[in-house]
């Protein structure tokens, strides 16, 4: 069954991009949003505040139900932890400097993040599910004379899906080496947890009530009274209670092992001139001791190798290509744009529900070799293109049947709206990774596509229509689309 999340928000949030303008402004609106299965009316203010090289963008919102009651979880100051999250939820973006500067920092929504030459982290985003899930990430980069540094954390409020650290050193003016580490310290933290207790929704009998998690526990005192009146006291109450045919919650968050994945990489970069660069890189993926693959076996180490890559700038375009080779249990660009929605999924196995991490799918990938190509640029300053294609051949296992090919494709197209009256935004995107043929459009959990349109109604009013679709495995083990539609009216004061 297709899940449609339709947010009719007279808000002013930008789902897939950063703010269009970094001038002082205030936008606001009224609308509606679904929270914890209930429809709420929303009032919001969104100030944009530039201060020198700083830019601060806030999203201050209030949600009211049909009885006029505010959704209090948005402003929960009962503890330092919940209070901090309530404040940080209102930060959309804080930025210092430009990406080309020697020092740059972005706090909030992260988009199109690549580490090094992208062998592990390529085109990553933490905002695919915004605004239903608000994450506060950070991307810090600085460059000294010879030493470079980059740090990324996808979310400070909850367990992040990506923590990455990179250091580079210039051996010569045109020759440098880089070392990178990327990790997801607990892939299970990607499970939906609506009430933010210790029980993800899949294991929670009361997913929207933070102080309840077990139907059996809610009736404990009633059963205790029955036990005291009718049951032989020689039988321990706890043993008797646990054997009752009622709905117990067997999930134990205190004894649940975290399932992590760690990636490391080294790259060498040699600039022939300002337009041409040669590079080489190697990376490994190392699952944790607790990682179990689809066969119930411990996941194994794998590596990928790029002996030669080329970056070339010509005119308005940048072209990149590289030859790739990988061992068993490895995929390139592990942290991609769709990672946050498929780092862990819930599937049905018989009469029970099971969780599967992206790392557990590495068993599907055997030894392969091939090429990767990427093209970025503009055509006549009208059409802007960012597209990439991967073609690998060798041995791939899909559902334990041998496949020869593993291919990926992604593309983002944007139009220069200045040449079209009343059009303020127009772009479309598509991604599908690690399939036999991504242009067959047989959708998988790695597929993402959508488009964004903006129309100027008046000098102070812009209408946006934004659509995005990604795919998950439902509890029946079938691929299921998740459609997000945002109709947005932006007021500028």
Q: Could you characterize what this model shows?
A:
With 493 residues, this protein is mainly β. The chain has helices spanning 80-88, 215-218, 220-230, 237-242, 339-342; strands at 3-9, 25-35, 38-51, 54-58, 60-64, 91-96, 103-108, 137-143, 147-153, 163-172, 175-184, 261-271, 276-287, 302-314, 317-326, 344-349, 352-357, 365-379, 383-398, 401-415, 423-435, 448-458, 461-473, 479-492. It has a single domain (3-197, 259-492), classed as Porin (Beta Barrel). It has a 20-stranded antiparallel β-barrel. Strand 16 (344-349) and strand 17 (352-357) form a beta hairpin. The longest helix is centred in the middle third of the chain and has 11 residues, at 220-230. Residues 1-21 have low confidence and may be disordered.
